[in-house]
Amino acid sequence: MITRTVETTQELAAFLRTRRERLDPLDFGLPLRRQARRTPGLRREEVAELAGISTDYIVRLEQGRGLRPSADVVEALARALRLTPDERAYLFGLAQQRPRGDGKLATTAAPPLARLVADLSPLPAMLMNHRYDILAWNGEMARLLLDFGALPPSQRNAMWLCLMHPAMRELYVDRERVVREGIAHLRAAWAAHPEDRPLTDLIAEFITRDDEFARWWGERDVKVNGRGRKELRHPETGVIALDFEVLMPLQDQDQRLLIYRAADDESRSALDRLCAG
User: Fold this and answer.
1) Cβ neighbours for 228, distance < 8 A, ≥ 6 positions apart
2) 4-94 and 111-276, same CATH topology
3) pLDDT band at 277 (very low <50, low <70, confident <90, very high)
4) CB neighbour list of residue 164: distance below 8 Å, 6 or more residues apart
5) Alpha helix locations (H) across 31-102?
6) How far, CA to CA in Å, does 61 sit from each of 22, 70, 260?
7) Least packed by Cβ within 10 Å: which of 37, 83, 232, 259?
8) What is d(CA 265, CA 248) in angstroms, rounded to the nearest whole number?
C-alpha cells in the first residue's frame, strides 16, 4: 500500500530532479561541456555547491530515500534552483516545513489593489499590511473612521490609532474585544515575520505606552480574525453595526483588504447618510 508519506517523498524527489534539469549551466557561468553531460541542466554536485550542502545529500533527496530536509536546507535549495515564489511554497509544503518570510514586506499599496479599494465604493474599504499599516482607503472609509490623509504616515496604523488617537479610542462600542483581537493578530504576525524590525519596534512602543496593551500582550493570545462584526459609536450618526471581511490577494499576500458592510437596516441607513454627506 502506498502511504501519503511515500507519495510526498517521491514527489519531492521528482520535483527536485525536474527543477535541476531545466536549468541552463550558462546562466550560472558554468562551462557547457555538453559531451560530458548525459542529462540536461545542472549536475547534482553543481546544485550541491550552489546550495552549500553535500552532493550525497542531494543524491539521497532525489532518490526519495525518506529524508525530511530542514527549513534551512529547503531555502538553500530554492535559491540554488531559482524557484519561483509558487514553486518555493510548493517545495516547503512537500518538505513539511514552514517557509520564512521572503523579506518582501508591503509598505505601499499595489496599484491594482489601490484601484480596487476605490472601486468598492460605496462600501467602506481599506488596504493594510500584516502590521496594520494603512496603505490605501476610499472616501467612505475615511468618513466612517478618520481622515487618514490628514495624518502623518507614521500614524497611519490601525492599532496605533485605536490605542493612541483620542477620537478612535472612543469609537468602538466593545473596545476591549477589538483591541484584544488586534493584539492576537499582531502576535501571529510577529511570529511569522521575525525579520520585521518595524513591527517589533511598534509592539515595543505599545507595551511601553499603553498598560492595557502590555497586559493583554502578556496573555499570548493568537488569532487571525478575517471575519466578524464591530459596532461603532459614530459622533454624527450614533451606533453603526458593521460586518467586516478581510481578504488576502494571492499575488500580494502581505496586503489585506478590509471591507465593511452594514449589519442591519438601521445601520445601512446611518451609513448611507454618513457617506452621502
Assistant:
1) 181, 243, 244
2) no
3) low
4) 155, 209, 210
5) 44-51, 55-62, 71-80, 85-94
6) 17, 12, 48
7) 37
8) 28
Contact by Cβ (8 Å): 144, 260: yes
* 6-24 tens-digit pLDDT: 588 888 888 899 889 998 8
Residues in the chain: 277
* Predicted local distance difference test score (pLDDT) of residue 1: 38
CA-CA distance, 133 to 172, in Å (whole number)? Answer: 19
Sheet hosting strand 134-137, strand order edge to edge: 134-137, 125-129, 255-262, 238-247, 227-234
Nine cell digits for residue 61: 533527496
Return the higher-pLDDT residue of 92 and 155.
155
pTM for the model: 0.78
For 230-242, what is each residue's pLDDT tens digit?
Answer: 999 999 999 999 9
Q: Which residue has cell 482607503?
A: 137
Cα separation of 272 and 261, whole Å? 11
Cα separation of 186 and 11, whole Å? 35
Phi, psi of 36 (to 5 degrees): -95, -5
Evaluate whether the domain defined by 111-276 bears CATH number 1.10.10.60.
no
Pairing of β 238-247 and β 255-262: antiparallel
Confidence band, pLDDT 50/70/90 cuts, at residue 103: low
Q: Which CATH architecture has domain 4-94?
A: Orthogonal Bundle (1.10)
The domains of the chain are located at: 4-94, 111-276
3-state DSSP call for residue 172?
strand
